[in-house]
Design a protein that fits this description.
Helix content is 67%, strand content 0%. It has helices at residues 13-33, 51-56, 63-91, 99-107, 114-124, 131-138, 155-180, 184-192, 197-208, 210-225, 229-234, 246-255, 259-290. It is built from 13 helices and no strands. The protein is globular and about 75 Å long.
Amino acid sequence: MNKKKIYPWYFVVAPLLLYVALFVLPSLIGVGYSFTDWSSYSDKISFVGWENFADVFSPKRDYLAAILNTLWFTVASTVIKTVLALLFAVLLSKGVRALNLHRAILYLPAVLSVLIVGIVFTSILDPSIGLMNEALRAVGLEGLAQRWLVDPDLAMWSVIGVDVWRGMGYIMAILLVGILSISPTYNEAAELDGASAWQRFRHVTLPLLRPTLAVVIVLNVLYGLKVFDIVYVLTNGGPGHRTEVLYTAVFQEFSSGRYAEGAALSTVMLVIMSMVGVFMIRTLTRNEVQE
């Protein structure tokens, strides 16, 4: 065995075989089925070429709207969660009473089941008897009461709001670890030079936090692109198709027996996620080289 290697090569064989068998092979089979007319309505499977992909991007179908909704959800939730999580991470890094209690309270939603969160918020955001509207009416703000999950213009924002509430604590915990790992000597030196709190954050904390922020953004983007559970539980893609994302559309296609179109949608998402992943890896690698 080459002593320069940390592990023998055969340690990789078993995990690699599992990865190929459970991920690579099913993915390739799914891509293959996306070029067929596979469905529950016929026992025969025929090759149809790009027909399913033409349907995906056809203006007559709602698939393109699902793709755009997925991208919009990803961008909006990533930005809002990252900004709020960074704000709370800075505030809870020091100088607050009952620090661990506040951290635990903000992190708690991250450990809750999506099903429980969906059921609770479906009740809270009910337009007639929901706690949100009842509270607004109780304080004289009845004009702000809305049909949160029913109004086509508000439904996606409501879903994003619930997702931010649930996921922000997890992102905050990662950023908090990054902030606490920064040596206090940097901030102390900046403070001695007369830098204000904002200047210390902007010119000291934020640059040193860039690697952690990069990890957070990657996690948020990948989660947003494959989001399914929170949308399905809250709105199931409604009203109409205003909150339908790619994986709820895939679920609907497979549930309806249109397996080939569902596989085509999954292939489109695979391509999108691969492109985003390559772009992020190149960007992060370039930043690391420059640093």
